[in-house]
Amino acid sequence: MLSPTNMDPTKILLDCDPGIDDALALLMAAASPQLDLLGVSCVAGNRPVHTTTANACALLELAGRGDVPVHAGCARPLALPEARTNLVHGEDGLGGIAFAAGPAPRQEHAVDFLARTLRDEPIGTLTLIAIGPLTNLAMVEIREPGLLRRAKALLVMGGAAFCPGNVTPAAEFNFHADATAASVVLNAGAALTLFGLDVTSQAAMSADWIASLGRLRTRAGRAAHAMLAAYAFEDPLLHDACPVAFALAPQLFDCRQLHADVERAPGPDEGRLRPDADGHGPRFELATAVDREGLLERVHAEIARLA
Ligand code: RIB
Ligand code: CA
Question: Is residue 196, in this structure, part of any structural domain at all?
Answer without folding.
Answer: yes
